[in-house]
Specification:
prenylation; 30% helix; GTPase activity; two-stranded parallel ribbon; mainly alpha; GTP-binding; DgyrCDS1646
């Protein structure tokens, strides 16, 4: 995943959005612009990255619980640190 950070600071942009999108497309990976200040796409980026990691993680044979929806899970594997 390619993240363009601080998208709220358009006047200080170092890399044009279309170039980031082009690079991501060339490598067949997702692209998002984010801003922690305006909370734009921060949660979306986290969930997309976490889901991509889970998709790439081989299932353990002893774990027959199936896939976990990280957004709506009460699974014990989910972190308890944040609400």
């Amino acid at each position: 995943m390619i993240l363009g950070n601080k998208c709220d600071l358009v006047e200080k942009r170092q890399v044009p959005k279309d170039k980031g999108e082009m690079i991501a497309e060339e490598h067949n990976i997702p692209f998002l612009e984010t801003s922690a200040k305006s909370n734009e796409n921060v949660e979306k980026a986290f969930y997309q990255l976490a889901e991509a990691i889970l998709d790439k993680t081989p299932n353990k044979e002893s774990d027959n619980r199936g896939p976990v929806d990280i957004r709506n899970s009460s699974d014990s594997r989910q972190s308890k640190c944040c609400s």
